[in-house]
Specification:
The chain is of the alpha/beta class. It is built from nine helices and 14 strands. The strands form four sheets. An eight-stranded parallel sheet has the order 1-2-3-4-7-8-11-14. A two-stranded antiparallel ribbon has the order 5-6. Strands 9-10 form a two-stranded antiparallel ribbon.
Length: 313
């Protein structure tokens, strides 16, 4: 979207990539609920630019309120506890992704995460990289959440644990239809905090009607600052000349139609060669302001709604 982006000159410091930016939006109160961090596992072909401590340092330096640490193959509640001891002044949270490495749809793993010292584990993600819909049929790594249009019993057990500990639910990378099934069952189980993970990004495509159904059931819709932009729902190639990547018109249109009260903006960043979490928010918030969103609306999507999801005041 040429002309919609604010060009920012970056002066990158070794290790954590600090930018000197004039007139950038204040990040006080901003929470990134989707911050990828190291130590990553070589089981997956993903590299991370920052470890959990460096990510928290970035957030503190830029004045952010907090981060949720995400890693596809392990829980991060323990990382959040240790990081919070090393980097005070920023709120750090973790979660657990129900991929194969933690036993898939595993209620015991979820409860263990919830009870980790510090109680900083706040988010439970349905399968992501191991979601059945993402893998070849019959893959031994696939983690199913449904069969014949019905959620599996173990998914319902996980939802009970989420409700018991008042955790937040992410729909992960399951199909749009399964995401709606999970959100509906979560509401029935008493889950009060949930969001649909980037339903217009990364190969996960929900129609507007489906997103409105999820909102009607009490879920937030996540819009991420990284990855593919969309024009009329069609993925565009990543623009490597833009450090935030294409923040497509479709995402802006989705935010308008769904309403800022129902949106959480996150980064989905932490990959080498890209801006850090805070820089993405600075650039993305500038785009939103230029696109006509009010400061109150931007604050709702980047500060208030993430805080509500995590049970913060």
């Amino acid at each position: 979207m040429p002309g919609m982006f604010v060009l920012i000159a970056l002066l990158v410091a070794p290790g954590i990539g600090i930018a000197q930016v004039d007139d950038a939006p204040s990040l006080a109160g901003v929470i990134d609920i989707h911050a990828h961090v190291a130590p990553e596992t070589a089981m997956l072909n993903f590299k991370r630019a920052y470890d959990a401590i460096e990510a928290a340092q970035i957030a503190r330096i830029y004045g952010m309120r907090g981060l949720v640490l995400k890693e596809h193959n392990t829980e991060t509640a323990s990382w959040a506890y240790l990081t919070s001891q090393v980097v005070p002044g920023v709120e750090v949270f973790g979660g657990i992704v129900l991929n194969k490495a933690v036993g898939g749809i595993n209620p015991v793993a979820v409860e263990s995460m919830a009870l980790t010292r510090g109680r900083l584990g706040r988010v439970v993600y349905m399968p992501t990289m191991d979601a059945e819909v993402r893998l070849p049929r019959g893959s031994p790594r696939a983690v199913a959440v449904s069969r014949n249009g019905q959620l599996l019993p173990e998914v319902l057990e996980v939802l009970k644990v989420i409700a018991k500990y008042d955790l937040a639910l992410s729909t992960g990378h399951v199909s749009a239809e399964e995401a709606l099934m999970v959100v509906r069952a979560a509401k029935d189980a008493g889950v009060k905090k949930m969001y649909v993970q980037h339903p217009n990004h990364g190969g996960i495509v929900m129609s507007m009607a489906q997103m409105k159904q999820a909102v009607g059931l009490g879920a937030f819709i996540e819009i991420v600052l990284s990855g593919e932009g969309f024009t009329g729902g069609t993925p565009r190639a990543i623009n490597h000349d833009n450090p935030v990547m294409d923040y497509g018109p479709q995402k802006l249109a989705d935010m308008r139609e769904l309403g800022p009260a129902n949106i959480i903006i996150s980064t989905d960043l932490g990959q080498p060669g890209r801006v850090n979490y805070a820089q993405a928010f600075q650039m993305g918030m500038a785009v939103l302001a230029k696109s006509g969103f009010s400061q109150a609306e931007i604050d709702m999507m980047t500060k208030q709604n993430p805080a509500r999801l995590l049970g913060l005041k």
